[in-house]
Amino acid sequence: MADQEFELDLDDLERRMNGALDALKHEFASLRTGRASATMVEPIHVDAYGALTPINQVGTVNVPEPRMVTINVWDKSLVQKVEKAIMESGLGINPQTNGTIIMLPIPELNEERRRELTKVAAQYAEQARVAVRNVRHHGMDQLKKNKDGMSEDDQKFWQDSIQELTDTFVGKVDQMLDHKQEEIMQV
User: Fold this and answer.
1) Where are the domains of the chain?
2) 73 closest CA partner among 85, 86, 90, 56
3) CATH number for the domain whose boundaries are 10-28+110-185
4) What are phi and psi for residue 118, nearest 5 degrees?
C-alpha cells in the first residue's frame, strides 16, 4: 500500500446507479400494459396558468375500474387543455369528457401495439444502462485523478470494484426490462 491512502466512495456510485434504476422504474410505470394505472398519466404536463404543470396538480387522478382512469379537473377552464395534453401525449387514448371529469377508457392492446411498447421499454432500459455507464465513467475518472502514489494492485482492485458494481446494475436493468416486456406481451 502507498503512503497516501485512496478511498473511492463506492456507496456514492451505488446510490447514483440506484437513481438510474429508480428513473427506469418510473418510466416503466408510465408504459401501459392493458390495465389502468394512475402512473400512466404522470409524465403528462398541462399548460396551466402559463406554466407546464403535472396532470396530478390540476386534478384528482383515480382508477375506478381495471380499464378506466378518471381525472377530476379542479378548474373548469383547464378541462380542454388537459384533454389536449392527453391526446398529444402518445398514450393512444381518446379522452371522454363529462363536465370536469375526464375519462380515459383503456382499450385492449393489439399485438402490434404490444410490440411497439416493448421497443419503447427497450429504449428506456438502454437510457438507464447509459446512465449507469456514465456513473462508472465518473468513478474511473476519479480513480485516474488519484492514481499517483497508488500501486498497480490498488488501481486494479478499484477498477474491478467499479466494474463489478456496473455489471450488477446493468444486470438489474436487463432483469427489469425482461419483466416489463413479459408483462406487456401478456394477453
Assistant:
1) 10-28+110-185, 35-105
2) 56
3) 1.10.132.20
4) -65, -35
Beta bridge partners of 45: 54
Q: What is the pLDDT of residues 76-126, one digit of tens each?
A: 999 999 999 988 877 778 899 999 999 998 877 788 878 888 888 899 999
Residues 93 and 86: their CA atoms lie apart, in Å, by 8
Picking from 175, 181, 182, 183, the residue whose alpha carbon sits closest to that of residue 21 is 175
Report the DSSP beta bridge partners of residue 54.
45
**Distance, CA of 60 to chain centre:** 22
- What is the CATH architecture of 35-105? 2-Layer Sandwich (3.30)
Enter the C-alpha cell of residue 106: 383503456
* CB-CB contact of 31 with 180 (8 Å): yes
Whole-number Å distance between alpha carbons of 1 and 160: 17
| All cell numbers assigned to 29 | 410505470
Query: Cell numbers 392493458 label which residue?
Result: 34
Q: Quote the percentage of the chain above a pLDDT of 70.
A: 94
